[in-house]
DNA sequence: TGCGCCTCAATTGCATGCAGTTTGAGGGCC
DNA sequence: GGCCCTCAAACTGCATGCAATTGAGGCGCA
């Protein structure tokens, strides 16, 4: 009967989940820009785990669409096309309308307080880095989703919100999120009031305006240049031709 | 300049994907019922790969919600609660309304033919096993999603459709999918006609009726007995008390 | 007979090792 | 000077091995 000095329930470890969370956060804060390389070794070394674990984590993130995995190639942070970004926002709108529909008039006092606290934090971070603002704004939506107590809805909203975050860093140049905060407050108010239709419409226009502010030009306005421009021309997505290489006759 | 005898594009291998697809199919055809154990060794042996690969595949399926992974325990086919099933259908309704909204009036002749062919196959399978009927019905919806050319939408619709499939095997007893086939035909007709509002409403009522036919009773009507019944009483989802074990005073 | 403890086979968590593929940098050739 | 070829380093794909945890059967005790 060893004294068992509280070493039993210690760490559930879950190293994979740890790495996933870290990478997710790094990605949405743009510490890792789209296209950034993610070699298994480096990740493993950085997090003090073996390649096996890093690899597994990359697999999970790829399933979420945050990472692109090509066989025998280094994993990279996903670079969604403009169309994919638009699609993600469309899906997000529907999912989040569902969230607020379920939540309207059903929030507890504690939940309302939590939401207000969060928006206050958004307010305070307004002068900080854009990255933090974006993260907080995203987390507001995830916080809402969490309150539905529907694990599935939480997962989908989180995933698609992260993806949208990713596209923001790709396609929106200056990022103006100030007004978004007021829209968050309006959503909370409508939720408390219990006006289902109103809050659904608010959420719709909120996300729609974020999307349209961000996804302005279908034409890539400058970033990543050649790669992006050539992407649509690579038929099967397989191997874009190098730079000055001309495809010559067989 | 080797002749390169077409050995280059041969097998991309992708053993993980292979196993995932196989398991997914086995699950939705109810060859693997909810709660079925999925030991890594056995899977690896069965598919001729190492545990590493089997493990990775299980991780992917867990991310999709088809498999439950508990630390240090054997993976099992997911057993969604009744509430989760209901949530999945709610999400599915919104996603598939989006699908048909995007598709209304935009189908090519080839696509229409493909859809009709599929429904014909559903018709022919009507006398076969329920499992095949369910699979075909699900694949109809995934086929629709595919036609949106939105990879994200395809992924979410597929996932949530598989999850719903899973719940059908749990909560619906006899399964009556005959009328569903006619509803599929009606949806195709409305899509061709291009009536957005009509087709969205059709899809809504179609899925709603499938859900309500399947998810009849919030009370577990019989299956899996004690485990299911006790589940809601396990506060943190952690470790349901054994059978005749009484929690005694400290 | 029944209840609890103990032990051990089964199984997972994770790291490491080896083989095959890709990358990109240098050198030779035009 | 530019192109191509070659080769080695870097990296991924996968299997295997070892330690830790689980849970199930067996043994002892009441």
Structure commentary:
Two copies of one chain form a homodimer. Chain A is an all-alpha fold and about 250 residues long. Chain A folds into two domains: about 60 residues, Winged helix-like DNA-binding domain superfamily/Winged helix DNA-binding domain (Arc Repressor Mutant, subunit A); about 130 residues, Four Helix Bundle (Hemerythrin (Met), subunit A), CATH 1.20.120. The first copy, chain A, is built from ten helices and three strands; from the N terminus they run αβααββααααααα. Chain A has a three-stranded antiparallel sheet with strand order 1-3-2. The first copy, chain A, is globular. The N terminus and C terminus of chain A are likely disordered. At the A-B interface, helix 3, helix 4 and helix 7 of A face helix 3, helix 4 and helix 7 of B.
The strand line-up of the biggest sheet of chain A is 1-3-2
Number of domains of chain A: 2
Summarize the main sheet of chain A. 3 strands, antiparallel
Beginning-to-end CA distance, first to last residue of chain A = 78 Å
Instruction: Give the overall shape of chain A.
Output: globular
In short:
Two copies of one chain form a homodimer. Chain A is mainly α and 250 residues long.
Task: Provide keyphrases for this structure.
homodimer, 250 residues, Arc Repressor Mutant, subunit A, Four Helix Bundle (Hemerythrin (Met), subunit A), 2 domains, globular, DNA-binding
């Amino acid at each position: 009967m060893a004294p068992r000095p509280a070493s039993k329930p210690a760490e559930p470890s879950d190293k994979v989940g740890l790495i996933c969370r870290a990478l997710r956060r790094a990605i949405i804060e743009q510490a890792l820009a789209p296209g950034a390389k993610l070699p298994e070794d480096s990740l493993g070394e950085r997090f003090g785990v073996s390649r096996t674990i890093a690899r597994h984590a990359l697999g999970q993130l790829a399933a979420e669409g945050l990472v692109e995995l090509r066989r025998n190639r280094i994993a990279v942070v996903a670079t969604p096309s403009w169309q994919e970004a638009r699609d993600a926002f469309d899906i997000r709108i529907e999912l989040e309308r569902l969230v607020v529909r379920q939540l309207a008039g059903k929030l507890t006092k504690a939940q309302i307080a939590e939401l207000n606290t969060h928006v206050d934090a958004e307010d305070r971070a307004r002068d900080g880095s854009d990255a933090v603002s974006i993260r907080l704004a995203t987390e507001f939506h995830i916080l809402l989703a969490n309150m539905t107590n529907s694990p599935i809805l939480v997962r989908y909203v989180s995933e698609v919100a992260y993806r949208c975050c990713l596209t923001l860093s790709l396609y929106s140049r200056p990022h103006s999120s100030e007004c978004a905060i007021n829209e968050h407050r309006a959503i909370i108010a409508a939720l408390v009031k219990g006006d289902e239709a109103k809050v659904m419409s608010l959420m719709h226009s909120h996300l729609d305006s974020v999307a349209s502010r961000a996804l302005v030009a279908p034409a890539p306005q400058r970033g990543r240049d050649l790669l992006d421009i050539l992407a649509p021309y690579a038929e099967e997505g397989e191997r874009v031709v190098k730079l000055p290489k001309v495809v010559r006759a067989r």
